[in-house]
Specification:
Helices cover 31% and strands 22% of the residues. The chain has seven helices and seven strands. Strands 1, 2, 3, 4, 5, 6 and 7 form a seven-stranded antiparallel beta sheet that branches. A hairpin with a 2-residue loop joins strand 6 and strand 7. Helix 3 packs across helix 5, helix 4 packs across helix 5 and helix 6 crosses helix 7.
């Protein structure tokens, strides 16, 4: 099973939604405690789905998470999304320990995004097959927004003044450039700055 295509149990969802360090509207303060011991087995199971993961390393401790997206914003219920960062540590069989943060994104009871940072290394599930470069995340964003808004490839190409093959390549994960970001931003009714950040052309900092 792919890490981003699995159902979450009620216990894991409760642990992911347990944010005692965050005060936000609608949450009891302090919230009722939940069973956080379900998280290390869950995280280890997801990590071990990665074929290249070193089984000598396991998540041995976690803390309550911090939400980066609460899923409570006003939008189409079909696209409501919650993402939580769960800090902790991983330990190896020889006793070495490293700081660990898992970023878990889910909607309803479905895991749709998983990324981990171990020490200073960011890891996640591969999209491309072995020996092939990973597609640029801009392609997934562009494809998702076009599909959500019902924009066919032909219409996007015509509106942006780009060829059909260019739109297809961008959707497949080819690296975008500044011109692509500027043209597509207007069609998707997004700021060019936001699209450039998503495309990896800017770091999001202000001058």
């Amino acid at each position: 099973m792919e890490p981003a295509n699995r159902a979450l149990t009620a216990d894991v969802i409760a642990a992911l939604r347990y944010w005692p360090g965050v005060i936000w509207a609608g949450q009891k303060n302090p919230p009722d405690p939940v069973d956080m011991t379900v998280m290390p087995p869950f995280l280890n199971e997801v990590l071990q789905d990665l074929p290249w993961w070193n089984r000598d390393w396991t998540v041995d401790r976690v803390q309550p998470g911090f939400p980066t997206e609460t899923g409570e914003h006003l939008c189409d219920p079909a696209v409501r999304f919650t993402e939580v960062s769960i800090p902790g540590t991983v330990a190896s069989g020889n006793g070495e320990s490293l700081p660990f943060v898992a970023k878990v994104g889910f909607t309803g009871d479905q895991l749709i995004r998983f990324q981990a940072k171990i020490g200073d290394v960011v890891i996640g599930p591969a999209v491309a097959s072995a020996g092939r470069p990973e597609p640029h995340p801009f392609g997934r964003m562009l494809t998702g927004l076009m599909d959500l808004r019902g924009i066919p490839v032909r219409d996007m190409a015509r509106a942006a003044g780009l060829s059909l093959s260019t739109i297809h390549m961008l959707r497949r994960g080819h690296n975008p450039n500044s011109l692509h970001a500027r043209l597509i931003a207007g069609i998707l009714d997004m700021s060019e700055a936001d699209v450039r950040v998503i495309a990896g052309l800017d770091d999001g900092s202000t001058q």
